[in-house]
Amino acid sequence: MSRRKRPLVPGAREGLDALKARVAHVADPNQAKYEVASELHVPLQRGYNGQLSAHDAGRIGGRLGGSMVKELVRMAAQAMSKKL
């Protein structure tokens, strides 16, 4: 379980949610984890998921977080190349 419920930068939640939706190819950021779970064939359902193993939950979060980091790095590299 994530220990931090809020971003380090105040007001960044909206931007992070938009990024999450973009990397998961969905319109609603709350739908992103379900899209990733279906791609990974993990039985994630709305509500209680006590039957879900920590391994499967980590696969979902890892795929989402990893994709978000990759996209942020790509965006930063693009912004740096424009400044040169």
UniProtKB/TrEMBL annotation:
InterPro entries: SASP_alpha/beta-type, SASP_sf_alpha/beta. It holds the Pfam family SASP. One of its GO terms (molecular function) is double-stranded DNA binding. GO terms for biological process: DNA topological change. This is Alpha/beta-type small acid-soluble spore protein. It comes from Brevibacillus gelatini.
